[in-house]
Amino acid sequence: MGMITDDGTVLERFADAAEEAGDPFVYPDGRVKPGERAYLYHEVSQTYLGDPVNIPVTVINGPAAGPTVFLTAAAHGDELNGIAVVREVAHDWDHSKLNGTLVCLPVLNVPGFLAQQRYLPIYDRDLNRSFPGSRTGSGGRRIAARIFDHFIEPCDLGLDFHTSTRGRTNMLHARADMTDEDVARLARAFSTNVILDSEGPGGTLRREASEAGVPTITVEMGEAHRFQRPLIDRALNGVVSVLAEYGLSEESTVHWPGWRTVISEDSEKTWLRADVGGIVDMEHDRGALVYEGDRVCTISNPFKTNTETVEAPFTGILVGVLENPVVYPGNPLCHLVELDADTLRAVERQQQYDPTRESFL
Ligand SMILES: [Zn+2]
Fold it and tell me: Which residues form the Succinylglutamate desuccinylase/Aspartoacylase catalytic domain (predicted)?
């Protein structure tokens, strides 16, 4: 390992700076020069005992100049898939030819991560509604401000990794404000089949960063509380594609996902909800193609003497499905997004090409 600085940061040189090297990445406790990588803990709050609450950060400044990209995960403390993605990019990839800088924050919500829950447990706040934060505001907003000011705003673009809420699962998809051309470019570069187009709620990292001039998308993948290798691999491919699009990597190319659909903000209509309480037998995985009238799931009483069938109201892809198979009236069962005729043909072609691949994850 490299040298350890006064504040405990591990700093190592992994490449010689190129002639056209970029600027150092500067954060409150130090700087990371071209060709250097820093592993650091940054204090964002304190516990009741007065101990620091530190978040782990890895900064990799490539030997040559290029954009600065942040990768963040676990803003919701129990959403783990993105942690694997960010750590793998930061620590398993060879960055000896990187043009630009990667700012990797695998666990944003450290208190939530320690408790394995979605929200900040001490302050009971949604960290992903607290951005850009405030130095004098509530606990959550103070944490958000330290993350945002020091590691988000200095970047040129960013990827924020999430999973579905506990009890549900999502196919890999991006959420992005496609009316913003810079954000749309990033969303397309990440190369998912499905992009949900919305500005995003106020206080989310992607919306506030984008409004501050740092185009950012949310990547949704799988379920909470676990690592799902196929999804992690596909998200890593998305990162490769983004690095190619923005010139950080000259050795890779921008991917085309095979087919793509951009769904405009109207998602309430496409959540199929239970009209009765009961036990759910879901008949499809996330990412499955279902045709209008297909049975999506059944909801039955404990004796199985009464079974309600839920059918697809239109032809589409199941972006999200229930994992915890119990519902009361009004509970979401699945998130079905409609496919236009051209996209449907492309999806069917892809399935014909590889019939063993029933779902698109
Ligand atoms: Zn989340």
Answer: 65-245
